[in-house]
């Protein structure tokens, strides 16, 4: 398929692996964080870790919207759906299985009688509200800057149509704030993350916000950022570009994903988001704590469609399951295999923490594609490009 | 949930909608977030909305960069800086 297969070419991957090994052959160690769950998924799925030299380590970042959603926000949706029979709660598929309090999830709440439905797009939720005028349709919105513009569109549309039975619980979060939080924990008392030499910057988030928002970050924190597409060759090229920056002492924003990302991004989408949303003073993230100006809320002009105001929903923070290491994984301090529950109690079928829910979560990605690598006896490397000469 | 693939626009429809095709599968999606998309353009679609158009020239240049990096790792480094923000 065009613009997909070419970016997965095995021979080119072998060449890039050689270039990476050459560039990394300085005798020092490197650690790069891939912010996006999409990149975590690519690294696992294509066995890229096997193509990298042992001195180069990739660290999972918090860029999976399902993973960073704290329990308290899911509880809020479950409480609403269980206590108000007139409510139809709609959300994207991944949200349904996020473990919440009392052994519940939105899916389990459905089994307890709540009307919870999965939608593929915000437009589906709006259409449902039009079809069911006697019910209250509430869309539980999550996601980074990629997923925010579609929510803004339906809020504006609901306002235009005067659709009184539609509202949104807004959980939209902001990427630059989370990247900064990784390097400077809020209040200085959160556990410090690991050493990071640079960031593989978001792909689809950046199609919307452009590469500009990372520029101040790169100069303030003296960390290179290379925006990369989600295909395996994109990620490898970005790693090579990061190595070159580190080796030459530079820390700027570079864009590997020029086929989809510009410096300014999608101005139409940005204007729409600014019209409907404003920054939230504080928002709690799983693993990162409460971060200032790191999320969005619905503007006053759209209060009639803000479910938090309409149903007077309060937020109560809830600590994570003690045995679950999601928080540390999202800060980059631990890996999935450091969790005692990984692959035993916690699997994609029976997730105990959020990182096991979405295919872009660090635990789910490692469970699906990488867990056999942990075994002492390795299967032969037949199907992957890993048998290419990487030295 | 941010994974999304480039799909080709095969038909423009009413109300900012269009039909896209990916590997033989056709789907209706919204073009409300982008301007000036035409039949034949490739777009990145996320949760039912096109987020951006793909730039074919930039795609070709990126592919060339991959090929070059692998040719001679010791001498191909200078070109890597080309891909800077525009
Ligand atoms: S394996 Fe499960 S319980 Fe452990 S950190 Fe991952 S998601 Fe949490």
Strand content of chain A: 15-25%
Overall form of chain A? globular
**Number of distinct beta strands of chain B:** 5
Which two chains touch over the largest interface? A-B, 77 and 47 residues
CATH class of chain B: Mainly Beta
Indicate the radius of gyration of chain B in whole angstroms: 16 Å
Total DSSP helices of chain B: 1
- Regions of chain A with pLDDT < 50 over 5+ consecutive residues? 186-190, 377-391
N- to C-terminal distance of chain B? 28 Å
Number of strands of chain A: 11
The major pleated sheet of chain A works out as: 5 strands, parallel
CATH superfamily of the largest domain in chain A: HypD, alpha/beta domain 2
Give every kind of bound small molecule, once each: iron/sulfur cluster
Describe the fold and architecture.
- The complex is a heterodimer of chains A (391) and B (86).
- Chain A has two domains: 29-319, Rossmann fold; 325-368, no CATH class.
- In chain A, 35% of the residues lie in helices and 17% in strands.
- Chain A has 15 helices and eleven strands.
- In chain A, the strands form three sheets. In chain A, strands 2-1-7-8-9 form a five-stranded parallel β-sheet.
- In chain A, a hairpin with a 3-residue loop joins strand 10 (277-285) and strand 11 (289-298).
- In chain A, helix 2 packs parallel to helix 15, helix 7 crosses helix 12 (267-276) and helix 8 runs parallel beside helix 10 (213-221).
- The two termini of chain A are 31 Å apart.
- By secondary structure, chain B is of the alpha+beta class.
- Chain B has one domain (5-69): SH3 type barrels (Roll), CATH 2.30.30.140.
- Helices cover 19% and strands 34% of the residues of chain B.
- Chain B has one helix at residues 56-71, and strands at 6-12, 17-22, 25-30, 42-46, 49-53.
- In chain B, a hairpin with a 4-residue loop joins strand 1 (6-12) and strand 2.
- At the A-B interface, helix 1, helix 2, helix 6, helix 7 and helix 9 of A face strand 4, strand 5 and helix 1 of B.
- The structure holds iron/sulfur cluster (SF4).
């Amino acid at each position: 398929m065009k613009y997909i297969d070419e970016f997965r070419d095995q021979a080119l991957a072998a060449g890039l692996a050689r270039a990476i090994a050459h560039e990394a052959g300085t005798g020092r160690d490197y650690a790069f964080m891939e912010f996006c769950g999409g990149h975590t998924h690519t690294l696992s799925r294509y066995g890229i870790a096997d193509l990298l030299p042992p001195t180069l380590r990739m660290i999972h970042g918090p860029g999976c919207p399902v993973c960073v959603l704290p329990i308290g926000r899911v509880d809020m949706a479950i409480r609403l759906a269980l206590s108000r029979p007139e409510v139809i709660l709609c959300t994207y598929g991944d949200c349904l299985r996020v473990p919440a309090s009392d052994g519940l999830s939105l899916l389990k709440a459905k089994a307890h009688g709540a009307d919870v439905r999965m939608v593929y797009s915000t437009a589906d939720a709006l259409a449902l509200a039009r079809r069911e005028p006697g019910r209250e349709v509430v869309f539980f919105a999550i996601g980074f800057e990629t997923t925010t513009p579609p929510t803004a569109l339906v809020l504006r549309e609901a306002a235009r149509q005067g659709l009184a039975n539609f509202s949104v619980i807004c959980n939209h979060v902001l990427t630059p704030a989370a990247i900064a939080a990784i390097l400077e924990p809020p209040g200085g008392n959160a556990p410090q993350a690991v050493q990071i030499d640079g960031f593989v910057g978001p792909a689809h988030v950046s199609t919307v916000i452009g590469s500009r928002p990372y520029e101040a970050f790169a100069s303030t924190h003296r960390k290179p950022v290379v925006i990369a597409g989600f295909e395996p060759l994109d990620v490898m090229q970005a790693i090579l570009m990061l190595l070159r920056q580190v080796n030459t002492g530079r820390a700027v924003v570079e864009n590997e994903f020029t086929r989809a990302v510009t410096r300014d991004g999608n101005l139409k989408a940005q204007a729409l988001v600014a019209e409907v949303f404003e920054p939230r003073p504080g928002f709690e993230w799983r693993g990162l704590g409460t971060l200032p100006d790191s999320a969005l809320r619905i503007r006053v002009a759209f209060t009639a469609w803000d479910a938090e105001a309409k149903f007077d929903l309060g937020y109560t923070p809830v600590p994570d399951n003690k045995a679950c290491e999601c928080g540390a994984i999202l800060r980059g301090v631990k890996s999935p295999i450091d969790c005692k529950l990984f692959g035993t109690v916690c699997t994609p079928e029976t997730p105990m923490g959020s990182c096991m829910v979405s295919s872009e979560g660090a635990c789910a990605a490692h469970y699906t594609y990488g867990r056999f690598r942990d075994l002492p006896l390795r299967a032969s490397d037949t199907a992957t490009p890993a048998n290419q000469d990487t030295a | 949930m941010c994974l999304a693939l480039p799909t080709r626009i095969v038909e423009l429809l009413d109300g900012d909608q269009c039909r896209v095709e990916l590997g033989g599968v056709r789907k209706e999606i919204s073009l409300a977030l982008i301007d000036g998309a035409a039949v034949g353009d490739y777009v990145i679609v996320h949760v039912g909305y096109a987020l951006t158009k793909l730039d074919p020239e930039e795609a070709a240049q990126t592919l060339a960069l991959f090929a070059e990096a692998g040719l001679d790792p010791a001498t191909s480094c200078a070109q890597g800086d080309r891909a800077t923000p525009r």
